Amino acid sequence: MSETPKPVSPGTAAVVVEGGQPPLLGLQEMELNFGPQHPSTHGVLRIVIRVDGEKIVSARPDIGYLHRGTEKLFESETYPMVIPHTDRMDYVAAATNNHAYCLVVEKLLGIELPKRAQYIRVLLDELQRLSSHLLWLGSCAMDLGAITPFFYVFREREAILDIFEDYCGARLTLNCMRIGGLPADLPAGWTQKVHDFIEPFVDRVNEYEDLLTENRIFRDRMIGIGVLPVDRCIEWGVTGPALRGAGMAWDIRRAIPYECYPEIEFDIPVGRNADTYDRYLVRMAEMRQSRRIIQQCLAWLEKNPGTEFRGKVPRVIKPPAGEAYAAVEAPKGELGFYLVSNGGNKPYRLRVRPPSFINLQALPEMVTGHLVSDLVAVIGTIDIVLGEVDR
Amino acid sequence: MTDETPKDQPVPAPEPKPAGDAPKPASPPAPAKPAAAPAPKPPAPADASGHPVVAALAAAVPGAVQKATSFVGEVTVEVDPAKLVEACRYLKSEQKFDYLVDLTAVDWKDRQPRFDVVYWLHSFPKKSERIRLKAKVADGAPCPTVTGIWLTANWMEREVFDLFGIPFDGHPDLRRILTWDGFNGHPFRKDFPLEGIDTGAAIYPDRFPEGGGPSPNDSNRKVVS
Question: pTM of the predicted model, to two decimals?
Fold first, then answer.
């Protein structure tokens, strides 16, 4: 051991000094473990932070605790068997995962979906976005000390999960899409249930905003924290609400449209200051827009009753040799699947472009110079899911 | 020409009659209909060396473009690994591909340059145009890093290094990211055994001794503090 004082190990605040007095605390930087078992890391994420007093000098995320080798697993499953595995990546937004995967296989196969299937898919996607944003809102607010919204959002999330359960039997790992369409048509009375939920939902959003938006403690914890301007977002590949919160109106649903989104009216909410508060505002506005989209889908589905929920799908799914990439706007950002096929009935390589993984990479830049408690706010508003980060 | 649809068949049955007046059968909008009928047709790859970005890249960085194909609406350019950084820098600064969407690798076990390193670029100024670059890298050979061009490549390259064992030349912090330090082997290689105990040690005994942990003279040994 050298004579200079050294922290014993990360996570321990004690300082080892051989044959001498311990130096005054505050005169030196200290290395701390944030996680992996910490309630506000939203899973098993470890961040090694160097702090000078309470100020963060550097942060280094350490990931992989939840690595299951999903992409390797895909290679030994036939194409339809892959779908349930995609549920387990971003496990709070399973429908968008299913959707992105189905899109890429359909792209290689050249399958065109009937309009009805497209509208149902978009409807499921947007319900999923609502449930993901609600869970984000509850946990993010709770990290910042606001306990009440957590119970409020779970009331609404529960209703959404019930709607999903009525459609596909599952609440979390939905497995609700198939290559070339959907597993089943909508059950009788389902659209009415969605109506009953979505009509008063705007009041619920107003309720959350009453609790938080003008709340002085909440604002003090959020405004000016974790600023990442547009050019840095692009440099780090950050997408989703973080990019829009920085002021760039870029959304895959509009930029590279898929399914029936071109026919649907909705706005892309953007922020101005690129901080955590603007990311919060963007997500709140997105919930209102999702409600608009769901209403339009319901109106279309009711005006065009039909039974077609599947395209022309071959009995055995064997895409031609080649490669393709397809992306959807997941609640967290751009979720893409890159598929390499060798003509067989299993994917040769299936890569997932996870938004959480890439957004998390920009975390050190966002938190350096802030206080440790601000780290919690920043992790909260980049909205990561560790199942997707580690895959 | 395409086949007649069944709907059209009854019409030409009284053949001798309309033979007299020619203008009537001359304008059947028949080809429009059968287009909807056939089952989904798999797309076919086409040459894309005429694509404006590819042509500009070939002119600006001579020798960089080896092959360009277009498939399901996506342009893929095979790039010489030696010219990769130069090509990427040109694409970012001149062609405005400012966002690196994805960077990954594909293992073609029996092919000679074994790996494809795949870059998927996006341009915000060009209305979300996208282009794919591909560099062929042999097993053990380093691939030049693009972290100097897009910061986001940092973790992606670490992931490719971790899972495929492709070293990135010039990377600022090339450590394992998803598996732990001292993991045996690179699990996304096609020859990585899927069953058994301490699998990596069986195929890379020199690098990873049995029992886990990097060998004493391994550069991987310097571990997370």
Answer: 0.81
CATH code where residue B86 lies: 3.30.460.80
Instruction: Please report whether residue B174 resides in a domain.
Output: no
Q: Give, as one character, the DSSP assignment of residue A332.
A: T
Is B102 in contact with A338 (Cβ distance < 8 A)? yes
Report d(CA A51, CA A30) in Å as an integer: 5
Q: How far is A235 from chain B (nearest CA, A)?
A: 6
Pick from A337, A339, A338, A334: which is nearest to A355 by CA?
A334
pLDDT single digits (tens) B25-37: 444 444 444 444 4
Total count of domains within chain B: 1
**Three-class SS of residue B200?**
helix
Signed CA dihedral, A179, A183, A187, A191: sign only: negative
Q: How many residues does chain B have?
A: 225
| Residue B47 to residues A92, A116, A326, Cα–Cα distance (Å) | 41, 35, 21
- Three-state DSSP at A379 gives helix
The residues facing A329 across adjacent strands are A334
Q: What is the ipTM of this complex?
A: 0.82
Q: Sign of the C-alpha dihedral, residues B72, A113, A331, A80? A: negative
Instruction: Identify which of B130, B132, B177 has the shortest CB distance to residue A63.
Output: B177
Query: From the CA of A108, how many Å to the nearest CA of chain B?
Result: 7
**Structural domain contains residue B185:** no
Cβ–Cβ < 8 Å for A120, A197: no
**Would you say residue B111 lies in a domain?**
yes
Domain coverage including residue B139 = 46-144
Tens digits of per-residue pLDDT, B108-119? 988 888 899 999
Residue B126 lies in a domain: yes
